[in-house]
């Protein structure tokens, strides 16, 4: 066939008796990662024949389906294959050799033998199972001539050892709940009893996991001798749905709870009026008594489906119905046309009961309840989808495929947003049953549209890869043709909007959308100020792409935080196959739209890095190191096993920015941090340091000296004096070096000791210090002693005289910030790592007026990355400076400025998700709030003139301080309105 590729695949692999092999992959022909494409066993190996569109880019893996229904995937990365334009080909693969190069051997049409024994042709359009049945991992269906259900049961083993609370309650209840309605009732009981308590997330998690395993057949449902028609299931489902919807509308619902609730909804049956009727789903009874079907088929329908459905309905009934439908439609004309038609109608009714209809069927069910705008959005989506499918089948010209694909994604966005808005009003307490049933349909359509966006984004990524992927996009940037980025960025905007509609960090999603839209509209200029337009466009985009990737990573981290332990506990207790337990969370991640958004971000970031010529990491401290790689969660005392010897390079998952590298061990020679971090954070500064430590009263800031107040306070005192002359100093380019210093005072060394004496606590203080000097880091002893010490010090209060003295220095409505120049309190073990006895450590307290900055910055007057003495490097964040000093995930603005030539170079654009601001609602109100940042509205991102002017001003101030203090400086400050404030400076570690 023209523009088609027929591929005969053979896998050389042996499996255990009762197991079989399937393929899952990225395209519809390969099941779109959700459906099994079966391989047929032959004497030559496991084979199948598949038809693809020419030049398709496909990814796939072979999967073993065990006789218990569990799946075992090949190890390693996805197999990747780029198909030719047309032709017939054969290839041979080896199990687990996912990196092997699959050679395509051309075949003549005559050689393409797909008869029994040589191959098995799979056509997804014929008897294609519903998504519900496509995920079935339970026992295969056997057609029965009599009531043989009990003889087909398999016994699970329960293990309640170690269980407590909700998990114990659920497992014990499951032991006595053989059929589906009783299992649904367990979930109802857990949810209704727990949603008002502190364990509501746990209740939702266990319910979601339990229902998923029931719907996929890994927890089997059996008859129990009772007789409850499907209306019982429907009524229980309505109770569960009502509780979930009420909880969803609560203001204090957590993002994690929203995420888990969305996984419960598709597992509930419908409770439309026809299913809550006293005798629902009666059509199958009439079918079983027809006279135009063979007796054996009649008995099979009666005992396998009809009687079972009306006594103890369960998910296996839909599986059996689809198996019967496949049987009676396999050979057209074999069975009565009227019978087949009637059975198809019943199949649709049963799918409706299990909420297992296709997306189009689900959408059709809400059509009558939509207003004019909603109907228009619905029709537009269905029309776009139809055009997209037609284009995909009729052409191989990429542009002609992507255009309708993109229109479908856009129309899906509009339709889903319409449905979400319709659901925003919440569920009224007096809502009639019909309204609740329709709301369930709306909810499932909204979730179904999210699931379908996964498919569309997957197709888009395949098309993008086929056009050249990251390399093609990067080449277009180099040639300054960024029009090719419009669709990929548009797809990312749509993907992020899908996450927003799902309730995942909506403010963050909105800010990312705004930025991506702004950068798409802005386009690429030849120059931005005095900088290369291509570089600025790429750096600006990189910041937002990094932010987008961080959004997806945080979602994944949340799933990994809340699901695996609960899955492990419940899986072990319920006797679920180990492989299903192990892969549960990964499957949830890979099946969600977040996975496609993450893949798209990764591809675009690769293109950006290629265009910039940069690597996939930033260097905080340059140098060479040789040592053993050891992975740890954080840099804390005791994180390294005492058995580890020799030089160590730490691979650290997370950091707060306040860590002391040597606190975890003196043999650490390097750190690889798996998150973004400001280069000039405390951790970065201390890493550079590691590479090369009176009497009471109040001292005015200009009078502070190192001997009485510590180096930090003394430096601030000198800054106060220098600020008075700074407005007379200019750089070589005529830029004023003027700055201000917030007013302040110091409680000198000895102030704490004086209050200890007054309260007769000196002996207790010294006793705890002695224990701290000798206790071990491991075992939590040090933490306990530090807690005692903190409680003792927290009980002290400055004297009335000190309070009054400070009150005379500052205005009565001033907001104050209290700082320390010592770091002994930063982290247990840092002081000890430095070899400083606690009794010799002293601390002064610096009190300064709190500012409300627009921007905060850290300056290094010598470039910390390449040691260039001619450059001042600044890292800048929106709002308060804690964002820079701490380990906040993200990147600041980075600007490098020449001391002598005035040249300003943008090194990076900011992408921190939040800014810290002082609320300032009333006098002396110092409450700090967090606001989501939209960088498309920040002058430092969008205004090249402002960026250059600020860079030159900061450079002038930094160079002035470097000369006055006689060495390179590490400077912290902020911008308030048009004024630059310097809050501290200290020697820069080199």
From TrEMBL:
SMART domains found in the cross-reference section: CBM_2
Question: What residue stretches are annotated with the CBM20 domain?
Answer: 1-97
Q: Which domain of life is it from?
A: Eukaryota
Gene3D superfamilies, alphabetized: ATP-grasp fold, A domain (3.30.1490.20), ATP-grasp fold, B domain (3.30.470.20), Immunoglobulins (2.60.40.10)
A Pfam family per the record: CBM_20
The alphabetized UniProt keywords are: ATP-binding, Carbohydrate metabolism, Kinase, Magnesium, Metal-binding, Nucleotide-binding, Transferase
CC cofactor: Mg(2+)
Q: Which GO terms describe its molecular function?
A: ATP binding; kinase activity; metal ion binding; starch binding
Q: Which family does it belong to?
A: Belongs to the PEP-utilizing enzyme family.
Q: How does it assemble?
A: Homodimer.
Name of protein = CBM20 domain-containing protein
User: Which source organism?
Assistant: Cajanus cajan
